[in-house]
Amino acid sequence: MSGDIYLAASAALAYEKRLEVVANNLANLNTAGFKRDNVSFQAYMLNHAGSPAAVNPPYPQAARPESFWVEYKSRTDFSPGFLRQTGNPFDLALNGKGFFSVQSPDGELYTRRGNFSLSPEGMLVTEEGWPVMGDGGEIRVAGGSSGRRTLDVTVGEDGALQVNGSKVGRLLVSDFPAPDSLTKVSGCYFKPGEGQGAPEPIQDFRVAQGFLEMANVEAVQLMTEMIEVHRGYESYQRVIRAIDELNSKSINEVGRTI
Fold it and tell me: Helix 3-27 crosses helix 219-253 at what angle (to 10 degrees)?
């Protein structure tokens, strides 16, 4: 592969990666608790000393194709989404910082998605059936499936759960000193990244019962960004085709007698 095509292909792949992230954000427009991702990329080229050096468009000519590469970074935006009222007593939203704690088969995870429900055993669980954690462990709302129609479940702004006037637990809401270092898993769930400190229980939060925090995604903004990415990707496709046609023409006409 020629150096020119390699440079154009690397840039096209960067746009392709960005398009994947934008499309995923748009697909989760109506997903409760979803946090959009932003992707950035930086091109590098080996300098004369053989050390990597950052370069920006318009990219210089690479002496060797393998001396040029692009690194991608994806970062989650933890800005809050709007609250949508549902009226479901098991739908909970957080006003302010923090994450709900849930116990998954792979360990404790953290989320802003609060569309909880009751398990057949009367436990407060996520859509996946994972227990929602309280300050004393799993939260048991009812003894079983019988008599649930008589349950009067209230959740205070401090996260305290009461059933028919009796307190059954308090939601465990935690935060991290550096949320940007959290790793996204399973869409709306996060786990601490490498070197991330332990979660810290917080007090300055308010729970809204009967509400869900929706995705922090703006449809119009994403559609505009998608158009921009498509145009950038197509421009590099045209560059690749032009270079390929030029190389093909040069090869076919070399040595031709007139």
Answer: 160
| Both structure tokens of 123 | 């436990």
Per-position b or e across 181-205, b if 16+ CB within 10 A of its CB: bbeeeeebbbbbeeebeebeeeeeb
The answer to whether the CB of 131 falls within 8 A of the CB of 124 is yes
Handedness of CA 45, 47, 52, 58 (dihedral sign): negative
Report CA torsion sign: 242, 247, 252, 257: positive
State in Å, rounded, how far the first CA of the chain is from the last one: 30
Q: Which residues contact 147 (CB under 8 A, 6 or more apart)?
A: none
User: For residue range 29-73, what is the model confidence (pLDDT) as tens digits?
Assistant: 999 999 999 887 777 777 777 777 787 766 666 555 556 667 777
In tens, the pLDDT along 127-149 reads 999 999 998 899 998 765 555 56
* CB-count exposure of residue 19 (10 Å: 0-12, 13-18, 19+): middle
Quick one: tokens of 1? 């592969």
Length of the chain: 258
